[in-house]
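step 4 of 6: structure.
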Amino acid sequence: MTAKIIVRDVRKRFGRKVVLGGVDLDIAAGESLVVIGGSGTGKSVLIKSILGLIRVDSGSIIVDGVEVTALRGAALAAHQAKFGMLFQGGALFDSLPVWRNVSFALPRSEGAARLKAAAIDNLARVGLGPDVADLRPSELSGGMQKRVALARAVAARPEIIFFDEPTTGLDPIMADVINDLIVSLVRDLKITALTITHDMASARKIADRIAMLYAGRIVWQGPRGMIDISGNAYVDQFVQGRADGPIAIPVIPA
Amino acid sequence: MTGLPHDIVGVLRAIGRFVLGGLASIGRVVLFAGRAVAHAALPPYYPARLIEQIIVIGWFSLPVVGLTALFTGAALAQQIFIGGSRFNAAATVPAVTVIGIVRELGPVLGGLMVAGRVSSAMAAELGTMRVTEQIDALTTLRTDPLRYLIAPRVLAATLVMPFLVLVSNVIGVLGGFVLATTRLGFNAANYLDRTMSFLKTDDIVSSLVKAAVFGFIIALMGCYHGFHSNGGAEGVGKATTSAVVSAFILILLSNLIITVVVFGSR
Ligand SMILES: Nc1ncnc2c1ncn2[C@@H]1O[C@H](COP(=O)(O)OP(=O)(O)O)[C@@H](O)[C@H]1O
Ligand SMILES: [Mg+2]
């Protein structure tokens, strides 16, 4: 069986700055892959490239056998309709109430009452009560916003879902709640999932497989259980959170 | 070796880069305008978004546009009175005021005031949506941002500006009327009669054509700069400034072109 998502030698630079320098990655159907990497290593750029939100400079991205780097117009929209995406900052529409946010991807022809009912179902899935439905996103705490964004991302039952730093900025308990939600959503809805994170606790919980992005390339990938015995110096330094190692962070000495 | 040829090449290169950059910007704006129009024409339509924008742009601009017209109309009547008196033509106040307001100041000042209000607000709102990834989110939620965000704004502004300018013209003439009858000794019935008899259809057509073009420019500049903003809060600030400045310049430039080229002989 060929993978659901195949990324080959993808390159992207902004001006002179090379962000992706030849990324290779396969994601199998139904698998939960976690890509770890430091801040600013191009993790968000990678998932936005797969979604077709960013045009890559070269390389190939194949989803369900279709080359997506060349897609435009209606074909690109059809490609994007396969995905649900949880954005790093939630990206909730602050001009709309929560229920309208959650039901946004559902057909408007359903009518407001059905859309609201569907929104409330999806909110329940992430542990939020119906009373939240009429609030505005700005009235919610950060953790609740993440959960609403999660409900919105899965509401249209996407085949593939991308999570961009789902636990960043949350306290450890709320982060674990989100991790559990992601695990159960992926398992119950049989979704293919790609999660981007630098939170190792989250990666250990969510992942079937882990890949590490460093300097524009995937420097290691393997099953979750191998992460502590990878034998890769980059992975070891990242997992153990050490300042010294092959990943050099330039800091001017005091 | 003198540095001179090198300097000339450097200067030429800088000029070339400036010209190319300018042309590229114009190209991008024209392309964006074309896509906005094409997306406004094709379904799915968002009537609720359109009505919302008509209210935001039209209704909420009425006070500022009305006051601008009122003050300007009165001041204009006074100036024409002063100027006209110098060659015994003070009686031209009603005729020149109405032509000045309808053909020029109503649409131009109305356009500039609405640009200050609306282009900036659009750029700030869309820019914030861009940097908080709300525009990317639309795409992943099976919604085309051009159709959902841009088309209703451009369409609403183009439709609503002629109505605003119509109101502004009436209030502007009224401002001149009030000043002329209370301070300059004009007879009310006589003033209105002269106002109406000097006004031609072409004056009104020119006014409304300008208004529609300015409305298009106002929304296009707000949307273009907001949609393409980047770099966080600073980027949104820059987008807002660029939107207003470019809308002002394009309004004044297109006003000149419409005035001279389209209605110059009528
Ligand atoms: N639209 C853009 N224009 C210019 N530079 C960008 C853009 N998007 C991302 N970058 C740069 O690419 C690099 C990687 O960004 P990103 O993928 O957001 O990192 P992260 O791994 O933290 O998600 C950063 O240095 C960022 O400045
Ligand atoms: Mg990121």
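step 5 of 6: annotate
 - The first helix of chain B runs from residue 4 to 41.
 - Chain B has one domain: 46-262.
step 6 of 6: archive
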